[in-house]
What does this fold into?
Amino acid sequence: MAAYENGYYSPSQEVTIQELANELDMSEESLSEYLHRGTEQLISQYLKSFPFS
It folds into this structure.
């Protein structure tokens, strides 16, 4: 994220979904959906990496 790299945000600064949506020029709803899908994908990939018996 260019803004982050240029030091506009500190890592400890809380960023709301609304602020992130504005930054990325997306609606808050579509961003929430995107994050939700991404999280589910990450979790399923994470679980698949374990050799469950």
